[in-house]
Here is the input.
Amino acid sequence: MPSLSAKILVLAPLALCVTAKRLVDDGAKAITLTAAEDERDSMTCKEGDPYLCGQLRDWKYLGNGQCCTSKWAECTSGDNYLCQKAGWDYLGKGQCCRTSDQKVWLTCEKVDQYLCNGDWTYLGKSNCCTTKWAVCTTGDQYLCGNGRQGWKYLGKSQCCHTSDWQEWLTCKEGDQYLCNGDFMYFGQSNCCTMKWAACVEGDQYACGNAGWKYIGKKQCCKTSDHQIWASCVKGDSYHCTGGDWKYFGNNQCCHVSS
Here is the structure.
């Protein structure tokens, strides 16, 4: 398990599932925690059963239904038997927890029990979890695993990629036959890239130059190995030129930053 010292916020105007240790909101920038911010400075307490909590090495029952640990901990709902079978701590009250001496992240999806395997652990109650870096999006089963290394279909239209390293995912509505190159088509008009990407609304003619790609559905995108984003305002084609400014049609004038 790698040292997990960073938290990812996806730069994606329409991220369809958001889990990249935590994949959170679209249109945001990456946040890197400093060493000081990553230090453990609090205790994790969950509602638990006095007897079950008292049997666990890393947890202590403190009364009033509180089961606590001073270690890093991530908890989710789970079944007693399946939680313990996976080597996790079951606190009672439906609480299944993973503790560690180092920062631990947890990505969980509500999916099919029989497809939850590999890097994923089924904990019961349709809860399928991984402690690796993970990004998920909606997708069809065939297109999800169609020769794409690291991608796995978990059922219930959830398609996920796991890695030992931090990663991100940008998804936009697009056309199957235009979603290629740095983009992958997952079905249901879902077109995604694992590179940094900036996407704006634009027409196909105006989009197709200077490294921009038209993926259909009026979506014009540019990918990069580095962080990139676009800010748009109303403007005309005559004045919206030069530098990092680009005109995308329909009075859409955008500035690209990296």
Remarks:
- DSSP finds four helices and 23 strands in the chain.
- The longest helix spans residues 80-85.
